[in-house]
Amino acid sequence: MEEFIKKVKNYVEKNEKYLINEVRSLLQIPSISGTGEGIKETVSYLTKWIKDKLNGEVNLFNYFKNPIIYAKIKGKNSKKVIFYNMYDVQPVEPLESWESPPFEARIVGDKIIARGAYNTKGALMSCLLGILSYFELENELPFNILLVLEGEEELGSPSMPKFIEEKYEELKDSIMCYFAFPSERIIGKPMIVLGNKGIVFLEIKSKISKYDIHSSFSRGFINPVAVISSLISHLIDPIEGPKIPWLEEKAISPTDEDLQYLNDIKEASPLEEIMEMYGIKYSRIKGDEWYLSVYFKPTVNVDGIYSGYVGLGTKTIIPSEAIARLDFRLVPAIEPKDVIEGLNKIIERLGYKDLVEVKIHDAYTWSKTNPKEKVVEISKEVYKEMGLKPYIIPILPGSAPSYLFTRVLKIPMIATAPGHGGRAHAPNEYITLDTIPKIVMYTSILIKKLSTFQ
Amino acid sequence: MEEFIKKVKNYVEKNEKYLINEVRSLLQIPSISGTGEGIKETVSYLTKWIKDKLNGEVNLFNYFKNPIIYAKIKGKNSKKVIFYNMYDVQPVEPLESWESPPFEARIVGDKIIARGAYNTKGALMSCLLGILSYFELENELPFNILLVLEGEEELGSPSMPKFIEEKYEELKDSIMCYFAFPSERIIGKPMIVLGNKGIVFLEIKSKISKYDIHSSFSRGFINPVAVISSLISHLIDPIEGPKIPWLEEKAISPTDEDLQYLNDIKEASPLEEIMEMYGIKYSRIKGDEWYLSVYFKPTVNVDGIYSGYVGLGTKTIIPSEAIARLDFRLVPAIEPKDVIEGLNKIIERLGYKDLVEVKIHDAYTWSKTNPKEKVVEISKEVYKEMGLKPYIIPILPGSAPSYLFTRVLKIPMIATAPGHGGRAHAPNEYITLDTIPKIVMYTSILIKKLSTFQ
Known about the structure:
2 copies of one chain form a homodimer. Chain A folds into 2 domains: 2-194 and 369-450, 3-Layer(aba) Sandwich (Aminopeptidase), CATH 3.40.630.10; 197-253 and 297-364, Alpha-Beta Plaits (2-Layer Sandwich), CATH 3.30.70.360. By secondary structure, chain A is an alpha+beta fold. The first copy, chain A, has helices spanning 2-14, 16-27, 39-54, 121-138, 160-166, 168-171, 224-235, 256-259, 262-268, 271-278, 287-296, 336-349, 374-385, 403-408, 435-450, and strands spanning 57-61, 68-73, 80-86, 106-108, 111-113, 144-150, 177-179, 191-193, 195-207, 213-214, 236-237, 241-242, 299-308, 317-318, 321-330, 357-364, 367-368, 391-393, 396-399, 413-415, 421-422, 430-432. In chain A, helix 2 (16-27) runs antiparallel to helix 4 and helix 13 (374-385) crosses helix 15 (435-450). In chain A, strand 11 (236-237) and strand 12 form a beta hairpin. At the A-B interface, strand 9, strand 10, helix 7, strand 11 and strand 12 of A face strand 9, strand 10, helix 7, strand 11 and strand 12 of B. Strand 13 of chain A pairs antiparallel with strand 13 (299-308) of chain B, so a sheet runs across the interface.
């Protein structure tokens, strides 16, 4: 192993410029799933790259809007490892806030600035380059790699469940699923993420009349903002938090095992740093309680609300309708159907059944990988070889459709990689330049370590 | 009197085309107080018209944005009657919904279509033409008319209190204030409006952070929509109505006298017609209770709310701020300060003092004229001469700064005129063509009747 590490170090040092340029080339092709801009070009580029450089067998699976790139790269034995990632990005607006064009991938100081640099085309290409480096050093992969690259992650991954269902037999006996992303929120402190909360993202709408009504009649009619506000205030107390017992009563989180990683969570994501980053004045809760709640409890949040008029001047109306969007995040053992049933019960109890429509946008469940899985140990060892000590994050407060791997395919999934980036979905999204050789190295060493997997 | 009525009838018949064209000429000049478009031209046009045709002494009073046109038209004796009206209108958007350009004042069938036709430049010019017709028939006014024409009514009349204060001595011994508007909501059923609710129009804002926060942290921070929703739901129950006892506990409304006019109110504005007009599905209350509440009780309404994102796609955030606008309508004896104090107490009681800012936009009090005032009898007599039976509306659920006349100057005020119009503030605002000669006649006869006022 020692020798292999040396070879990899040497490889990334010698090829640093090439590696960075390859990542920049991918970042220079737009791939905005919301608008469709550059999706075709990106799919062609990646397909050709995987065929030419990795000798992969590539197939495209088209269910909803953008294809899933599914590639098999043959190895020495019949074992399989899934590499999951995404090639789509969020829109670039507001353009004027970028210090360099979002698809120029300009190098500014020690960073590459580009939409997708951090989330996650930078990591995707670095990971592919990691496989390539293994090839160049060892001529052959020890096992089969199954690349699953989706182009709809920013749209809620609508095609993934169908794809996993269709390829179930081929995927289900894989050793693990690896999702590469630059996990050092604080440089030098990588995270191994083992789970995600599930999500139900829905819209509640109250439509009372065809037109806005003169507000002098407000004593006589129902105001749709009052309906939506009442419903929201039955779900959340702004200071106490969620106030719906059914959201938590079935939750089996945190477990004793989860609690062992509380310090890892705290050190990897200090609350003060999060508050500073967003300019937050107050925290509803503090200390351990904050981490226990945010990471391990289910939640309900209002993402937006809109009704009537709040522009310049006076406009006094009973608005004809009001709309709000809510997201519920789910921990073990709460499922999307629990949330939808619970919400409908509240609407019925309040007598709002005829006054409120609920429209589900996204709904998928939580995911957790056991920290005792051997692949977690292997991931830690890879970091050790690189001189880094990773933190174990048993579940992230955010959502991703990881359950498809852990709960449908029943294989362990780890989301990790060294490197640092930021401003996902925002202007001047970036990764640090050294993220690229670090992910290349990490991937190569991971393949090497996994080759001994029994 | 009979002879005078004949002369007036004859006059409006002979001059019908001229009268309609004079009204159209004013409607063809834009006068949007929000944007300032055409205000100067309108003020010049009216100033010249009043000087040339009515021999009025015109002065402009500029306090805030657009001048108050104050004109004295001399009469035989020293008595005074105030004619109040407004020359400003609301913006015309959405332009594409107009069937003819908003400042063309096109005649379509039996209507004139124009912004301001109904609210209230059509009535203003018809009223001036009524004074002119009196001149032409009788050579001299019996008393002084004081024209108070403001250009900021759609902005909440910010200059009017100062103007009334400054001209207090000159205005306070007037016989009455007359505000002409086409009052036949149902054709053939004019209303004599004797009062208005007061209003407090304000904004509540909750700002929690500098940037929108990733919603996965929602369990740990305060959501500003939850703050605003909670506050709203402590003010209004969507089905039960206002739920703040302090809003009603001092109210002395309806009085026994008010209740005598319940039938007038019901017949002049049938609930079914209001629901039909706005496309309203449910009424919170019904029958007499609806009218008693809407006309005689104070109320609180949400005019608009805005926060976060409810556009296409998924965006899961804790919005950095939320804003809502509320209007409170006040009956005797509730004053704006009662509302503001009451609201601040709720905010304090809920523990939201550091979380909510309140910004008052408009605030003025209620107005009522005693139905036993002699001028009300005179107004009824004018209708009788025209073959119409008016309804007495002791107080409108809507607001207007009428208190300046009834409570500051302590003179009776009546808002009335024959004629019909609609779609105030909306596309295709209109008056029926016959509204113009009818208001001319009404105004002439009113001057004649008031000349005998003791």
